[in-house]
Amino acid sequence: MKAGLARPSRSGLAFAEDGWHALPAAEVVERLVSDAAHGLDEAETARRLSSAGPNALRGGERVSAWILLARQFHSLVIWVLIGASGISIALGQRADGIAIIAIVILNAVIGFFLEYRAERAMAALARLAAPRARVVRAGRAAVIEAVDVVPGDVLLLEAGDLVAADARVLECSALRTHEAPLTGESHPVEKHAEVCPRETVPADRRNMVFLGTGVVSGSGRAVVTATGMGTEVGRIAELLATARRDETPLQRRLDQGARRLLWAAVGIVALVFILGLLRAIAPFELFLAAVSLAVAAVPESLPAVVTVALALGVQRMARRNVLVRRLPAVETLGGAQVICTDKTGTLTVGEMTVRKVVTSARVYRVTGEGYTTRGAFLADATGYEARNEPLLEDLLLAAAACNDAQLTDTGTRSSIVGDPTEGALLVASAKAGLTRDDIDARMPRLATLPFDSDRKRMTVIRSREGRPWAFVKGAPETLLERCSGIRTEAGVRDLTESDRAGMLQAGAVMASEALRILAVAERPLEPAAFSGPRAPDQAGIERGLSLLGLVGIQDPPRPEARESIQRCKRAGIRTVMITGDHPDTARAIARELDILGRDDQVVAGSELERMSDRELMEQVARIAVYARATPEHKLRILRAWKSHGAVVAMTGDGVNDAPALKEASIGIAMGVTGTEVAKEAADIVITDDNFASIVAGVEEGRGIYDNIGKTLAYLLAGNAGELAAMLTSTLVGWPLPLLPLQLLWINLVTDGLPALALATDPVDPEVLDRPPRHPQAPLLDGRLLATTALTGGLTAVVALTAFVYELSGDGELTRARDAAFTVLVISELLRSFGARSATRTVLEIGLFSNLRLVGIVAVGFLLQLAIHHVAPLRELFDVTPISLDRCAAWFALGFVPLLVLELKKMYGRTPAEHGGTRPEVGRD
């Protein structure tokens, strides 16, 4: 370390937290009191490690397992069910009470384990740090634990290294890093040691390297400017720790419903007590009546239904490549109104791909995405498939020959080792039948002039036809200056100004399509220009080249992404792209995918920085694309949408996405390219990284929500019928038409089992043809509540009709209760078929399209017959044997509610069946 320099002051470090890139390299070293050549000595590193702390990310405040478990009992529904369990046990129905408690515990255990996994996001983030680092200590290179790296350490970087901390580049040679996990950039970032403007955002700081990113190629030295929580990844960790996770819409609706049911039950019990006291009913009989009404008011099977609906939905979604980490997220995804999606790896394949090739003869469009070696070259003018065209093959041969990447071809999918852009060139060459192994065998490599940011080109010299041969690729504007010839179908001729202008025009067209352009050239060398291991004459070799053409490379959109976005539009879901890429690239991809509408805006991160939160909130609905976005930007965008009450889904795969994934209404991570941090912070993981799978998840989520809604309506209608029958009898002064045990039996046979079958109903094929429900809309809207009230009234009427008819006949109370009991069971079992849709009839849906429901209803009828004809059960439930004529009469009476409701569907339809009000999210 330089003698005589004081240790860095707090004020100096505070300035440099976001300003190191704006200082010359020598000044950075001086401010950090380090030495570019000798690094720090052991005594100084020990002092700094003690002062700055270890180079590690804090895991955040850990939530104990007991607290996580206690959270599972915060829902009022749970406490209503616990009360119902106590009532059942008090009535001597231990099996029912224990069953309800078992459901509560099952829900708690599932929720506990899912949330316990979610809390591991910070631990996954900490694992990004490189385990070891190469540094200069006391003038010598040393390999140390990354946790011991301190500010002022000098890192030695080479291809394949993980960067151990944020650092300012001091010197480098062809250094490029892969920063997609941090910034979203899909291609490697070239690094240099020059000063960047102070306002440069992290994604554009070419003189900085960042913790957790990888060195793709080249080498360099960099002085550490920040460690641990002071790094860019550390800032993301802070955001992730403070991100809020809101209660899901389903949880809010169920809690609201539970409160209403609870107060309704309390009111009914109080009313019965008051009326009973006025009529001088015996206290014990009054108690039984009140408790029976309370049991009838609470749908005990609702948590089981919700759990089964969500669990089955999870299984169906898993078959469609959607892995659910939190059960309520299934329903929330179905209610999504906005999807904020990353571009790289989500809407695009996440792999650089050659999309266009330009030779002197024609332009070719290249099919096939990513590292799939299957594809073709189609002539843009005619669309024919090019085969055995010398100009095209020469260009692809040169692109593969001037290449340091490695391609492993498995026949359908390949993997790349090295620079993704060079990998894309190898894949394109493989599509034409040219492989690196064959090229290396035919043309051994003699020397390499590596790419650097000053020359903007790379040259590889190989032995071809018995002489040295130079293959060159690089930036078109640079390479064209060094070309004197151009290869044509008639051979190599002089490069004219017209040729040069034509190539530059072709490059401009590709640039407008957000393609990254490389020019490819070659030239044979005289043996004297290159001899043995002597360093070749760079200036002499890279001039007088023959231009072979241009190559346009891009991370292309997924083939199915456009159709998926169209389905989102039809479903009333707004798709917003948030990416770290350049605005031009983002704009081109957004147009290709039809994300960017005529009146939509593209906003860069620098513009977003100048917007206040209020301005962003006012404009957010008109912005379809955000480019050069940072983690803070993503959180601001999410919060702006949520301030309008929108249900927002956020997709992502990088570390930079994790805070937004956690705070979004529904966080969706990519399973293949996604980092462990993103997966742990998300609610849902897409196992195939396919945007189409997200749409499939939305479809399943909507179907599950529909199933829960119609099942709840079915349960409440049945309970309303029981309540109406009991309350009417109490008000009129009749005996109670149902015994407590009979009420429990009805709840078990006609509520629980059919409700579970309704929860497994197939998803309506038109579910994505209607807009999303409003986040503030109740689980049961006014029409469903009206239908529920009508259904409950009809059920009560037929039950009381049977009760009064039998009671007025011979006056035997047991036969009258038997009639009311059986008619209620029959009517509710039959009504389950009609409950499958609020607008379509049983015949339109198909009676046998839900075989579970058919089987359960059949079993319910058999069990009801068993009660009447098995002596022990008959005595237990206080019923009498049923004759064939009475059975037919009661069945006809029980069929009345279903018949009336089906006729109402047929003749009471509105033009917007199954529709809803499209929410104008974020618009005035």
Describe the structure.
The chain is elongated and about 125 Å long. It starts with 9 loop residues before the first helix and ends in a 17-residue tail after the last helix. Strands 10, 11, 12, 15, 16, 17, 18, 19, 20 and 21 form a ten-stranded mixed β-sheet that branches. Helix content is 48%, strand content 16%. The protein has five domains: 164 residues, Calcium-transporting ATPase, cytoplasmic transduction domain A (Distorted Sandwich); 54 residues, no CATH class; 222 residues, Up-down Bundle (Calcium-transporting ATPase, transmembrane domain), CATH 1.20.1110.10; 157 residues, HAD superfamily/HAD-like (Rossmann fold, 3-Layer(aba) Sandwich); 202 residues, 3-Layer(aba) Sandwich (Calcium-transporting ATPase, cytoplasmic domain N). It is built from 35 helices and 27 strands. Strand 16 and strand 17 form a beta hairpin.
